[in-house]
Amino acid sequence: MSNTNELIVYVVSDSVGETAEFVVRAAASQFNGGQFQTRRVPYIEDEGTISEVIQAAKEANGLIAFTLVIPRLREFLIAKAAEEEVPVVDIIGPMMEALEKKYQKKPRYQPGLVHQLDEEYFRKVEAIEFAVKYDDGRDPRGLLRADVVLIGVSRTSKTPLSMYLAHKRLKVANVPLVPEVEPPEELFMISPKKIVGLTISPEQLNSIRKERLKSLGLTAQANYANMERILMELEFSEKIMKRLNCPVINVSSKAVEETANIILHMFGKRG
């Protein structure tokens, strides 16, 4: 039951109504001790619902704040509220009109676009967190939840590829293939269609590893960059990829973006 002195603000939207409610609360916070409550009416699709809200606002001596992007509904609410002498605040309309003049083109008039953008953003953040958590075979359980699993020997761009694909909202785990370590059993429990093998020419891998050792202040003669060792690792990884029967991409002389776009195409995603 509302206090008789309490102002009721009806928040009307053809989407969720979060934007309008946030603005109402921000404005009301400037009035110390002013009692109010919001009643959100989301996903408005017809004039009948708008008429009911206007009548309720009239009886409660309240006001209406709205974010309606569909012109028909917006015009109806403004006209009907004026007729019933109910005060209304158009929260999004003036900004859209100003932008329309500047851009010199019509808006899309599609409700919920901000909410969609928010969902895209949170999916991206979730995918990035996933890539970090399940990088370098850290937790094999992630393989069961991943959209894509990258496998390959060290320095085949697994980590940068995982991060790039995460920005495209794919959950990516990656597993290094090392002859002395049996791949996790989870790798053989998932569909080979989710797995992408990464291979590279021995010469390029040798060059990349030598540079890596130099950057770490280590001798380029270490076993890590030894050609015999590299050939052994590549042979081992090839056997695993054949056993899994997964698609394989040769990343020799390919930029991360180029390889990522091949993978995005394989998974039906746009780059």
Report on the biggest sheet. Answer: 4 strands, parallel
The number of E-state strands comes to: 8
Give the percentage of residues in beta strands: 5-15%
Q: Which regions are unreliable across 5 or more consecutive residues at pLDDT < 50?
A: none
H/E series: EHEHEHEHHEHEEHHEH
> What is the general shape?
elongated
Distance between the termini: 53 Å
| Spatial sequence of strands, sheet with the most strands | 2-1-3-4
Structural class: alpha/beta
Q: Count of DSSP helices? A: 9
As a whole number of angstroms, the C-alpha radius of gyration is 29 Å
Which percent bin holds the helix content? 40-55%
Task: Give the overall average pLDDT.
Answer: 90
Question: What would you note in describing this structure?
Answer:
The structure is a single chain. The chain is an alpha/beta fold. It is built from 9 helices and 8 strands. The chain has a 4-stranded parallel β-sheet with strand order 2-1-3-4, with helices on both faces. Helix 5 runs antiparallel to helix 6. The protein is elongated, with a radius of gyration of 29 Å. The chain starts with 6 loop residues before the first strand and ends in a 5-residue tail after the last helix. The mean pLDDT is 90.
